[in-house]
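Notes from hallway chat w/ T.B., transcribed later so I don't forget. T.B. wanted the structure written out for a chain they're using in a teaching module, and asked if we could keep both sequence and structure tokens in one place. Agreed to drop them here.
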Amino acid sequence: MFCAKCGKELKENWKICPNCGKSIDNANADPMGQPAGQSGYSNNGPGASGPGPGFQPNYSSPHPGYAGGQTRGANHGAPPNRNGSFKPSPAVILWGALAGLGVLGAVIFGGMKLSSGKGGSVETIGDYYVTGCTDVVKVREDADEESDVLTKLSNGEKVSLIDKEDDEYWKIYIKAEKITGYMPNYYLTNEKEAVTEPVTKYVDIEDGETMTIRSLPKGDASAVGILERGQKVTLMADMAGNFDYIYANKSKTYGYVESENLSSKKVSAAATPAPATATPQPAAQAQAQPQPQGKIIGSAAAPVNHLGQYYVSLQKGYLALRNAKAFDSSNEIGQMNNGDYVWAMETGGSYWYVYSPSLGMYGYTNSAYLTTSPVTASRPSGRTYLGVYYANVASGYLALRNATAFDASNEIGKISNGAEVDVIDMSAGEYWYVYVPSLNQEGYVNSQYLR
């Protein structure tokens, strides 16, 4: 039975209600939880319209006043009050408030970190979308095409970038499947609207001209390849703006080209070879340089063909580009930093004849400091990164410093144009604290020269 005053459930042998202190009179107590004389049910005499004898209210049945058909009764922490509506206890109110705060926290922090499905979290630095694949792209356990396949993705599916630990494979997180793995970066774009099926295009430029494939969708980005009129390419991402992301079938190169120079119709190949200025043979320039030996030395257009791409690998300092096959301070014409790449024009011996895209120059360099593998480094652990940027300098290099000021004495590294820069802290103002993978160093850079 229940107290006629407050509605608390009572035991048969109680004399006083422990909740409100009212003296218990069995004659006035209501076994159905309502005060005597105020029950919504009749005494069930002749002609009564209420429930029959022995009726017990079903407190577990759905009640229209409870959203979603919730049940009424003791399971909700309190019995019904006098007018039949639900009256939650203070404990229920407290737990409800705590639950609300928990949901709010999940919404806020859920936008910052993605659950790993293992009780931890996965830090990501941006969303990307699969593009340019004919069927599916395989996500693997490691950055190796021989490693186990974890899942497969189709065009348009979204992933979150964790890190660029490998030159070809990026570490990604798939929220929908709670999977962390690796996939080729050339099937990813950070523009959702750019996603496309692979489409065949043809280079449509003037006869005798060449078109540069660039590392970024900007006209001043470093060159990664050259295309001639009529060459077939595969459109990987149909981007907004002046550039599209393509795959050059002949040179097996991925990069960005000006979209206005691509045609859906087949274009006849160049009728004549590229002009002399695009190959290492113009006599006029060679005569103006020391020890020309029939080759371009110094600034000139990028080559149409080369023997391979190599990367500068140094522990410190720079690798000199020279106008002669010898070590001499007087023959230096340029400086290349760790992680820069060159295109080999002639190999053999200690000094190779190369073209440096970062300098836009031809010359000789010591082959002992060249490697076929990209020079990369894993990010230091325990860091939170605010974003990935790239060095943007018209000439020379971007200095890495140990202080937030322009001073020759605080320079600790040289960052090439187009090199990746991972931002750690922006709070110092003009100078940001960063990590540079190509140098495997941390320090400050002038943020005005980042894009």
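Follow-up for T.B.: The helical segments are 90-110, 283-287. Might be a good example for the class.
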